[in-house]
Amino acid sequence: MEEDQKKVSAAARLFDVRRVIGGLFVVYGVIVTLLGIFDNQSEIDKAEGVRINLWMGLGMLVLGLLFLLWLRLSPPEPPQPNTDETEGSETH
Question: Of 46, 80, 91, 92, which is most buried by a Cβ count within 10 Å?
Fold first, then answer.
C-alpha cells in the first residue's frame, strides 16, 4: 500500500501542470530568443525597428522560469490515502 502511495505521489509531482507549462515556455523562449538575436535587418524592419522575437523570447523565458520557481517554492501535496471503510463498494 505504501509503495502505491509513493508511485501516485511521484506521478502527481511529475505531471504538475506548472512543470509542463514552465518547461514549454522555457524551451520556446530559448528558441525565439535565439531567433531574435540572429534576426536580419529585413525582419527587424517588418516589426518597425523592434526586435520583437528577442523581446518575446525573453518574456517567454521569464514566464517559464516563474512557473518553475512557483513549482519549486510550492510543491504539490501528495494525495491523501483513501480511508473509507466502504472501499470497493459502489455508492449511488
Answer: 46
Burial of 51 (0-12, 13-18, 19+ CB in 10 A): middle
Q: Is the pLDDT of residue 27 over 90?
A: yes
The confidence score (pLDDT) of residue 76 equals 77
User: Would you say 59 and 28 are in contact if contact means Cβ atoms under 8 Å apart?
Assistant: no
For the four alpha carbons of 39, 41, 45 and 46, in that order, the dihedral sign comes to negative
**pLDDT for 57-68, tens place per residue?**
999 999 999 999
DSSP 59-90: HHHHHHHHHHHHHHHSPPPPPPP---TTTT--
Determine if the pTM surpasses 0.85: no
Three-state secondary structure call for residue 38: coil
The length of the chain, given as a count of residues: 92
